[in-house]
Amino acid sequence: MGKITAAARGAQLPALSNLVRNQRQTPPAAAAAAKPEEDEKKKIWNSMIRFPTPNLSDAKSIFNSLISNPNPNPSLLTPKFFNSILHSFASISTLDDSHAFLNHMLKASPSFTPDRSTYHILLSHSPSSLPSVRKSLNLMLSHGAFIPDKVTTDIAVRALCSSSLIEEAVELVKELSLKHSAPDTYTYNFLVKHLCRHRSLTMLNSFINDMRDSFGVKPDLVTYTIMIDNVCNTKNLREATRLLGVLSEQGFKPDCYVYNTVMKGYCMLSQGGEVLRVYNKMLEEGVKPDLVTFNTLIYGLSKSGRVRDAKKFLSVMTEAGHMPDAVTYTSLMNGMCREGNALGALNLLVEMERKGCTPNSCTYNTLLHGLCKARLLDKGVELFRVMKAAEMKLETGSYGTFVRSLCRKGMVAEAYQVFDYAVESKSLTDVSAYATLEATLKWLAKAKEQGLAV
Amino acid sequence: MVPPRMKMAITENPKKLANLIDLVNLPTPLRDFLGQSQISRLGCFMRVWSYIKTNNLQDPNNKNIVNCDEKLRSILLGKSQIELIELPVLIKLHFPKEPK
């Protein structure tokens, strides 16, 4: 059953959210400018300096006309102003042109002294390859005499990782750590996350060891959470348990996020009992469960067929001050549908709406799937009408089940309509929507031949 | 971004997908019907199905049956009535398997 992993996905999100420091988009100096009046100014800049072409000489003449404006507002001619001009040019142009443009800006406007973020802008817009990042770094060193710091490292690493040049990023981090400064925890964890997702465990471990041995950068609790999350996603619970051991050896106390992640791992294996065990251990250790914990727990129990236990936690979580949300209810409905109790799930929908919780498309997809499986096609059709009115997307699983149920009842024209809706609402790709329809019709024709269907 | 299931389908069975979306040179009757010389099987199905919808060719009493008009008959084996069930099969006839 499709997408209830939302509950599980939730488990990893909060843990990683402390990592998301959006530096790539806004260079540090500009990031500080979040005050409203600054925003207003920013708007003026942006309307002024949208370069129509990535052509260098055009940009130069635009810049010249900008600064030769007879009444320049002095408050505007700040480094920030120049930086944002550079920013908008660099975002559409090539690296060499941006560098040339910076040189031109320096020559044409003596009042402009580039600061660190000027070079960070160039760095963040460097086309992602190690040589061009190096080039920007060298420019920063030779030209502006700024020594790359932690922020520089972070921007460079993010630029490289965004085009999945992870090996290059690792190389750069080591190089910069050797020459200038070691990465901060955000950069480090960002890189660990990318290594986890896209490279092998061996590579990850060698990176961690190298960083620890050469530069004294040690993994922290967040790093371990990322690693545990990763092995849980690959259903490697043995490694997760080992990492938990390492974590306590290093003197860390597992927090809510770590427990949530481990619970998610057991959810993926449908081991409801283990999920419950982790939850109990968490209580023993005095860690306070949060909404995600309860959602994961309810999801895990529902998935492994212990809906009655799962339901009990509805009241437990309310007592703990967490209101059940769409994920909670959807997980429960999922469990009930698995048991074939689609009507019960439908009643839960009513109860959920009465309590003021709005169902999402995932809820409806789960119900649609469940109703079709329980051969309650009329209700399914009704539900589909609601979904259509609300322009909700169909998921692959519920789409397939629904089309098959309709065809089984000989409602081929309706199945075509569902197909049309799936294509129209871009729920599925045309190919997969059609492949399902075609396969179903083929199967139906065969069944008819043998006198098995309507 | 390709959804995982789709990715699996592609990697497991590239040919099946290819014969859905590859452009094929069309035989004359289809060429006249569609007004173009190349189309994929999926595209052809979509065009025929939208032709049926726009011209209201579904039987009012039984939506599962299509009453073919002159033009549609020319590409669907000259049948005057077809069932929606057979539509993909009939269209597939115009897209023969390539000889190995």
Automatic annotation (TrEMBL), chain A:
How is this protein named in the record?
Uncharacterized protein
The text of the family note is: Belongs to the PPR family. P subfamily.
User: NCBIfam families of this UniProt entry?
Assistant: PPR
InterPro entries per the record? Answer: PPR_rpt, TPR-like_helical_dom_sf
Entry-linked PANTHER family: PENTATRICOPEPTIDE REPEAT-CONTAINING PROTEIN 4, MITOCHONDRIAL-RELATED, RESPIRATORY COMPLEX I CHAPERONE (CIA84), PUTATIVE (AFU_ORTHOLOGUE AFUA_2G06020)-RELATED
GO MF annotation terms? mRNA binding
Tell me if Metal-binding is a UniProt keyword of this record: no
An example Pfam family from this entry, by short name, is PPR_1
User: Sorted alphabetically, which keywords does the UniProt record give?
Assistant: Repeat
UniProtKB/TrEMBL annotation, chain B:
Q: Give the organism, scientific name.
A: Daucus carota subsp. sativus (Carrot)
Protein name from the UniProt record = DM2 domain-containing protein
Question: One Pfam family name from the record?
Answer: SWIB
Q: Which residues form the DM2 domain?
A: 19-97
Q: Which PANTHER family match?
A: SWI/SNF-RELATED MATRIX-ASSOCIATED ACTIN-DEPENDENT REGULATOR OF CHROMATIN SUBFAMILY D (PTHR13844)
Please name the CDD domains in this protein's record.
Answer: SWIB-MDM2_like
Spell out the Gene3D superfamilies in the cross-references: SWIB/MDM2 domain (1.10.245.10)
